[in-house]
Amino acid sequence: MRRHFICLSRLVLVFGFLSTTARGQVSRKLQPEDLLAIRDIGGVQISPDGRLVAFDVTEPANLHDHARSRITNIWIVPADGSAPPQPLPVAPARKSTPRWSPDGKYLAFLSSAEPQGNAEKAAQIHLVRAGGREAEQLTYEKGGILAFKWSPDGRMIAFAAKDMTTAEEQRRIQEGDDPVEVDHNYKFTRLCVISLADRKVEVVPQQEFQVNDFEWSPDGNEFALRISSTPKLDDAFWHGRLVIIHRATGEIVRTLSEDVSPWEGTLRWSPDGRTIAFPQFTPKRIASWLALKPASGGPARYLLTDYHGTLRGEQWTSDSEYFVAETEVGTKAELLRINTVTGEVAKLADALADASEVSFSGSADGNTVSYLCEKPDAPNDVCAITIGQAPRQLTNFHPVLAGFRVGKAQEITWKNNDDGQTIYGVLITPPNFKPNESYPTIVLVHGGPIMTWSTGWNEWGQLLASHGYVVLLPNPLGSEGQGWKFAEANLDDWGGKDFQDIKDGIDSLVAKKIADPNRLGIGGWSFGGFMTAWAVTQTNRFKAAVEGAGITDLVSFDGTADISPTFLKIYFLDSPFRRWSTYKTHSPIYYLANCKTPTLILHGLTDDVVPVSQSEVFFNGLRLLGTNTELVLYPREWHVFTEPVHQLDVLKRVLAWYDTYLK
Q1: Is the N-terminal amide bond of 299 cis, ω within 30° of 0?
Q2: Residue 261, C-beta contacts closer than 8 angstroms, at least 6 positions apart
Q3: Residue 579: which CATH number?
Q4: What stretches of 355-491 show up as alpha helix (H) in DSSP?
Q5: How many domains does the chain fold into?
């Protein structure tokens, strides 16, 4: 549940209030189609010598072909900014996930090339010489490649691939003899290795577990694996182990942690082979600490336990003495250089990156770092910084946005009225905003709950601001960006102090005559959907709400979601069968009779993170009670939507819903 709202875009002509840009061009409001026309930049990878940066560019959606996914290609740009970016001139057309060989002479990447033999059209590893124009397909895995990493000596590539349906299983399906035995016959993700000398693929033996992440040892003889006993998200998220295995035999030679976390840090083996860095759960198992543990076993030591922000990811420098790291502080991303012995932190640059993912890559010596750099008024571009120099922007993929009326985003703070805790958030004001003139205001609550909003580009926020709304993006208690203790402080208290933080943020905007108290809206996805449902059942101050894939009944959610039962057991200290009253009093559905707010409910039909029944029960209840509501369900969509036509539909409905009730 660590995702933001759905990412969307495209260009169309629109009528509305007109203003003039600094260059004399007529600017116009953003429309939902405009957001689907924006290129998506990601996957930055700098070459080991720090000279070149490879990255993914996903082209705008084709709204006339709903079955066709967006095309992603790889681009290359010099890290010193001496030349403009260019697409990698190599077939096939769809390429992503670039990875430089350790010597920088080759670039491996994933591509959905044409099938060969019994291989399906799925992502396979390809290889091209740096500066070359012909790529070789290395793998032909039926189900495709999920992740891959070069061996330190550059002679092998390890990759993760998922078990596929066997011929016998397929025969039984065709004959209708296919009952599903729950908790049996799992399809695991397994680790394989391809030798570049003879192109032979070998499955690492003895893998009766799910491989969730992996890292080579510097000598290439072992792997560090984050594994779980099943592929279910509940086990992968909260019941992972960190183990060391022999590459040749698959034997687990030692277990380093029973509490390895999948977030707030990355699995990294030091170049000198002595230390493994990984995120480890804190005792409450909500947030994480960065653990450094001897690769041979022994006690761990922890870095950044008193840090005032949240670690996103880290990368060793070649001398094994420093990390280059990305963190979130308040609502701003920072690139840091961290002494792995003393814990001393030196800031390299403000990244303004998407807070939901790791978005940087350092050269082998750590002296040059490439990273994604958002702006409040534009999505990701690629930037770089060399120690001792100023940051430099290497790409400019969004000049078209200069012709649109976008909002001004800035970090703001306020106090919780009960305990005085400082709360961070982002305020987006509409174009031509005038002080002391109250505006219709919409609060957008992030997912998680352990996530955060950043001051970078926000699709929903900018769309709404362009249409005259003030938008508040609060990071209430339980969010990241203020240290691990703050992230855990909503334990057993969903809808308590975290909701108070949100209300206090609204009140501060009302007091400053920014927000119109009679035209307030709220919305959110995932945990943000929960908080939206909670808000409209606790108060009638909101005149419109959009609830996306939200939890509305903790008891039934606990028994049906793929991330439960551990998820709620962690936050509410035990299962609902021993804490009925607590689960009930923190569920929006039990206060539904209080709701008078018109509520739009959106959900994907294949969502197993938050099952669609959570939205259905909320909708049916509102309808029976006579409250204005609509439920829209989207076929084939999971917790995060991927089909452009559906993404566009969501944006149109969201904007229309708020316009109907707030203007």
Answers
A1: no
A2: 240, 278, 279, 280, 281, 288
A3: 3.40.50.1820
A4: 459-466, 484-487
A5: 1
Compute φ and ψ for 394, nearest 5 degrees.
-100, -20
Q: How many C-beta atoms lie closer than 10 Å to residue 559's C-beta?
A: 13
Structural domain harbouring 536:
405-662
Give pLDDT tens digits for 405-430. Answer: 999 999 999 999 999 999 999 999 99
Report how far apart, in Å, the C-alpha atoms of 663 and of each of 434, 437, 465, 467, 469 are.
18, 15, 13, 11, 10
Q: Is 594 exposed, middle or buried (0-12, 13-18, 19+ CB in 10 A)?
A: middle
Q: Do the domain assignments include residue 303?
A: no
Q: Is the pTM of this model over 0.90?
A: yes
- Tell me which of 93 and 200 has the higher pLDDT: 200
Distance, in Å, from the CA atom of 486 to the CA atom of 480, rounded to the nearest integer, reads 7
CA-CA-CA-CA dihedral for 295, 296, 297, 302, to nearest 10: -30
Q: Encode pLDDT of 561-574 as tens digits.
A: 999 999 999 999 99
* DSSP per position, 62-105: -TT-TTSPPPEEEEEEETTSSS--EE---SSS--EEEEE-TTSS
Structure tokens at 304: 């950044």
Residue 626 to residues 28, 542, 595, 613: CA-CA distances in angstroms? 38, 17, 10, 20
Model confidence pLDDT, tens digit, residues 443-484: 999 999 999 999 989 999 999 999 999 999 999 999 999 999
Are 35 and 641 a contacting pair, CB within 8 Å? no
Residue 368, in any domain of the structure? no
